[in-house]
């Protein structure tokens, strides 16, 4: 199978994730969309690794996973504490920086 | 010998410091100390003079360098003195008349409780004036120039409890400031042109300097001279300066300080010789002032103001002579010296009259004083004869020479200047005769003063009459002494140079013409003021008389043109500042504020908006990179 198809898939996933981040208001969903974008990147990296025949892309994909795991920890903690204080998981409600 | 020069200045300077810092404990000896130190300076001057006479004409200048004042690479200012024949003439005049007036002031200021301070100021004046005339560079001359200005200010306003005196002092100071501005600009121009401002190098280098630069320097020097010597257009302060005590008017505003302008022009002769345009302006200023002062002098009823008008007019003669170039320099200085004697004598006489008349200055309240004040009458009378140019007296010789020199200028110019000087001589004869007749002749017209005291005219004490007698001797004999055998000409010629010019009329004709106008002037005055009684209240007078009483509207002119003009200028500048400058600044600030207010709206606090801008930005960057690569 042509590896370019995997790249199309990665682009599709990334676009879905980006659209989710921009459009959805629920913090959990936005968060999941961010993960989706990260995984789209991982897929692209792995595909490139395969196309070029070296392992650099795969190594970077591992790094991304580690970073994503760390991000999940911090991000979920923020969302939980936000929910506790404001009784809502909507990102629009957390617009405190607005003048 | 040259080490003595500094002593000339040191003596009166010491007097000023001691008297002004010494406090009340010196009140009883202050006047003696001041007079003694002025006298000491005179003695030193005489010693230096006899020494100078002992040397040949080319070897008479002495130099003394005290110390380096501003020793900077490319800018050397020394405190150094130069005593040549020109400076020597001034030094003798200043110290001799100065000492006499110190003596006179002992009597005149006897009842003034601030007499010590008065003598301190007088000493300060003498010191500053000496610095002015013996400086060997323009910068040190400037120090003296400012020093005499300060002393003049302090002395005009000596009776500062009178608002008129305080105002007059301020007026003199401000008008002089305009002239001083000219001198400082001239010095700066000299420095940029010649790289130095010592007399020697500057005056020698004038030969290879462009005429334009010399004209600029010359005109600035003339502005300075106009301020200090009360010449049109900066003449307005001299009349008001008569608010000062009379000895001050005699010393500063008649004999010495006001002649500093003449000194400056004669000293800078080489500059003016190279700048005919500047010389022409000098001559015009002299001629205009000559008539201006004379006309003002004709209309004033205040004896001191009449004499002030006369001073202005006589200095006009000197400035005119100085503007004629080498034909006139020597005669300008000669008239300056004789004028110093007779005008100081006249002022001291006026002071003596005021002293006897409860400080009354209105000549319409005098009359018939010759019986009460014989010494004052005789000395004043001799001064009067000298100033109108009575044959054989000082003014006859010196003024005659100036009139001759004016004719010798040649061409139409010479005829015009000659006519102006002759007309001036006629008016001089008129107003001085008027002063004489109103004061000493006719019926007595004095009245009780405001408190009901009748004046008891009496002769002044010896301390006042002796200086008057000495000055009267000078008024009578100085001119003849200078002129016979051209003594003064030979004395000054090595410094100022001299040329005869070609007179279209002979000297005898000029003298005859002068005599004719003199007789006409005296006769007209006699018809108007001698033959019939002088009214005690001034008649309304013609339009010209009324204008002349107001100093030919000089103050009105200054008010309308300078004060109003200045106000309008500042107002329009403020308007421009408010509307244009502030407008630009405030407009920039307001537009920045408005713009940022609008930009602020972009920061709405929604995380999504920021995410969009990040995505958008990244997309643009990637698109741009791809596009660049494709190209």
Quaternary status: heterodimer
Main sheet specs of chain B: 2 strands, antiparallel
Radius of gyration of chain A: 17 Å
- Summarize the biggest pleated sheet of chain A: none
How much is the radius of gyration of chain B in Å? 31 Å
Most extensive interface: A-B, 13 and 10 residues
Unreliable residue runs of chain B: none
Biggest β-sheet: strands ordered side by side in the sheet of chain B: 1-2
Residue share in helices of chain B?
over 70%
Number of E-state strands of chain B: 2
Describe this structure in words.
- Chain A: It is an enzyme of class 7 (translocase).
- Chain A: GO terms for molecular function: NADH dehydrogenase (quinone) (non-electrogenic) activity.
- By secondary structure, chain A is mostly helical.
- Helices cover 78% and strands 0% of the residues of chain A.
- Chain B has 631 residues and is mainly alpha-helical.
- Chain B has a two-stranded antiparallel ribbon with strand order 1-2.
- Chain B is globular, with a radius of gyration of 31 Å.
- The N and C termini of chain B lie far apart (95 Å).
Key terms:
heterodimer; A: elongated; B: 631 residues; mainly alpha; two-stranded antiparallel ribbon; 24 helices; 2 strands; 72% helix
SSE layout and pairings?
The complex is a heterodimer of chains A (99) and B (631).
Chain A lengths: L3 H20 L3 H26 L3 H31 L13
Helix pairs in contact in A: 1-2, 2-3
Chain B lengths: L4 H17 L8 H24 L8 E11 L2 E9 L1 H24 L6 H20 L3 H19 L6 H32 L4 H6 L6 H18 L7 H5 L5 H10 L4 H8 L1 H5 L2 H24 L3 H21 L5 H28 L17 H15 L5 H15 L2 H30 L21 H22 L3 H10 L10 H24 L12 H7 L4 H47 L6 H24 L1
Antiparallel strand pairs in B: 1-2
Short overview:
Chain A has three helices and no strands.
């Amino acid at each position: 199978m042509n590896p370019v198809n995997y790249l199309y898939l990665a682009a599709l996933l990334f676009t879905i994730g980006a659209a989710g981040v921009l459009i959805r208001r629920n913090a959990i969903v936005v968060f999941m969309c961010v993960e989706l974008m990260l995984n789209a990147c991982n897929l692209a990296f792995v595909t490139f690794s395969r196309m070029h025949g070296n392992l650099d892309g795969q190594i970077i994909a591992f790094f991304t996973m580690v970073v994503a795991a760390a991000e999940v920890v911090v991000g979920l903690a923020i969302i939980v504490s936000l929910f506790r204080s404001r009784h809502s998981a909507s990102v629009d409600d957390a617009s405190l920086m607005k003048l | 010998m040259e080490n003595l020069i500094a002593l000339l200045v040191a003596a009166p300077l010491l007097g000023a410091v001691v008297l002004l810092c010494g406090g009340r404990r010196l009140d009883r000896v202050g006047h003696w100390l001041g007079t003694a130190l002025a006298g000491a300076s005179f003695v030193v001057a005489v010693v230096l003079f006899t020494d100078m006479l002992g040397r040949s004409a080319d070897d008479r200048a002495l130099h003394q360098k005290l110390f380096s004042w501003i020793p900077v690479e490319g800018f050397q200012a020394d405190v150094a003195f130069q005593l040549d024949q020109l400076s020597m003439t001034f030094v003798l005049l200043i110290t001799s008349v100065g000492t006499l007036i110190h003596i006179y002031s002992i009597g005149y200021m006897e009842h003034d409780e601030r007499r010590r301070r008065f003598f301190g100021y007088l000493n300060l004046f003498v010191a500053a004036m000496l610095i002015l005339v013996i400086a060997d560079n323009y910068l040190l001359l400037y120090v003296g120039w400012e020093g005499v200005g300060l002393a003049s200010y302090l002395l005009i306003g000596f009776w500062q409890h009178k608002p008129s005196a305080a105002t007059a002092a301020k007026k003199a100071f401000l008008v002089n400031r305009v002239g001083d501005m000219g001198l400082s600009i001239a010095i700066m121009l000299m420095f940029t042109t010649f790289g130095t401002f010592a007399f020697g190098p500057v005056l020698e280098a004038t030969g290879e300097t462009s005429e334009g630069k010399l004209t600029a320097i010359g005109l600035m020097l003339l502005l300075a001279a106009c301020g200090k010597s009360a010449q049109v257009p900066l003449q307005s302060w001299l009349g008001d300066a008569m608010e000062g005590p009379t000895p001050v008017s005699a010393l500063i505003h008649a004999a010495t300080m006001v002649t500093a302008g003449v000194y400056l022009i004669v000293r800078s002769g080489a500059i003016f010789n190279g700048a005919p345009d500047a010389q022409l302006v000098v001559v015009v200023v002299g001629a205009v002032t000559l008539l201006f002062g004379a006309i003002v002098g004709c209309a004033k009823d205040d004896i001191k103001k009449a004499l002030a008008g006369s001073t202005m007019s006589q200095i006009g003669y000197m400035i005119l002579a100085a503007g004629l170039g080498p034909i006139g320099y020597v005669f300008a200085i000669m008239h300056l010296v004789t004028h110093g004697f007779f005008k100081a004598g006249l002022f001291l006489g006026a002071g003596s009259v005021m002293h006897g008349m409860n400080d009354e200055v209105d000549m319409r309240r005098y009359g018939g004083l010759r019986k009460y004040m014989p010494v004052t009458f005789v000395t004043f009378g001799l001064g009067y004869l000298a100033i109108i140019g009575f044959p054989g007296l000082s003014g006859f010789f010196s003024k005659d020479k100036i009139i001759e020199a004016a004719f010798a200028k040649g061409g139409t110019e010479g005829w015009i200047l000659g006519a102006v000087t002759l007309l001036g001589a006629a008016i001089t004869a008129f107003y001085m005769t008027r002063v004489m007749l109103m004061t000493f002749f006719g019926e007595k017209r004095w009245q009780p003063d405001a408190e009901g005291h009748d004046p008891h005219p009496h002769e002044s004490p010896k301390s006042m009459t002796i200086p008057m007698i000495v000055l009267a001797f000078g008024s009578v004999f100085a001119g003849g002494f200078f002129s016979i055998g051209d003594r003064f000409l030979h004395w000054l010629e090595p410094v100022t140079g001299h040329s005869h010019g070609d007179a279209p009329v002979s000297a005898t004709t000029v003298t005859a013409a002068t005599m004719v106008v003199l007789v006409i002037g005296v006769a007209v005055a006699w018809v108007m003021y001698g033959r019939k009684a002088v009214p005690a209240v001034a008649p309304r007078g013609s339009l010209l008389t009324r204008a002349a009483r107001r100093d030919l509207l000089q103050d009105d002119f200054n008010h309308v043109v300078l004060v109003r003009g200045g106000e309008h200028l500042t107002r329009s500048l403020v308007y421009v500042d408010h509307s244009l400058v502030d407008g630009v600044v405030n407009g920039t600030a307001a537009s920045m504020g408005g713009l940022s207010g609008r930009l602020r709206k972009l920061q709405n606090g929604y995380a999504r908006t920021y995410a969009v801008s990040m995505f958008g930005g990244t997309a643009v960057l990637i698109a741009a990179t791809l596009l660049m690569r494709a190209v």
